[in-house]
Amino acid sequence: MIEIETLSVERDHAPVLHDLSLALPAGGLTALIGPNGAGKSSLLLTLAGLIAPRAGRVRLDGEDIHAMRPQARALRLAFLGQEQAQVSRLTVREMVGFGRWPHHRGRPGPADRAAVAGALALFGLGELAERPVSSLSGGQRQRTQIAMAHAQATPLVLLDEPLSALDPRYAREVMEALVAMAHDPAAPRGVVVVLHDLGMAARYADHVVAMKHGRLVAAGPRREVMRDAVLSALFDTGLKLREVEGAQVVLPA
Ligand SMILES: Nc1ncnc2c1ncn2[C@@H]1O[C@H](COP(=O)(O)OP(=O)(O)OP(=O)(O)O)[C@@H](O)[C@H]1O
Which of 91, 99, 115, 167 is 20 to 30 Å from the Cα of 236, by its Cα? Predict the structure, then answer.
């Protein structure tokens, strides 16, 4: 369980999150939605412990995230930001293997190798495993980074726009892999994902958090938040959700 208590955050001395209070469930997939500049990335960076709040705090299972040592935090949460440094010489397998570092600290064992192999298979990277990351397409690189976050095997996974470079097939496969991670009966994880694709949020999220101007607009189970009136007000444009052949789609109203 993540508890966000009266959280205020500044970036470059400008307030970007205002007095946010919210509890996120420990399991399931939570979609973070809202217009450009709403503060979604700032919230994710704060949840990851990478931006210190001006006021308020974030607790993970009762512990203040910002008081944890980085090594301890790396066993509790995995974070994938929008802009990742490119480590060009690494192969895909080596990069995914970096996700295991907090577990083995430089001495990988069979469990680490198995976790990497599982992540490579889950994200369709088997055939690319020995390729340098620098030789990959943007979408292949994005899947490599998501696989690395998966291999980290943390109870909480934070992903900022993980679908942005993916074609429809891989966007769907990655979302289904994230759902499987969130509902893995052996080790369910809390997966929090910033999504611009509202159709994906409507189809796959268990919970939805809607933000605008650095404030919370709505939060709750998907069906409570993904409603025509909430979405239209959130994005300042007419939107309607409709069911087409069993899937939710978002249309202009
Ligand atoms: N590195 C930064 N330094 C200073 N201010 C920033 C920085 N990044 C974002 N901001 C500001 O913080 C506010 C929230 O931005 P943020 O990136 O968190 O929003 P977002 O909802 O993730 O937007 P988007 O959907 O466009 O990615 C904006 O006003 C933005 O200008």
Answer: 167
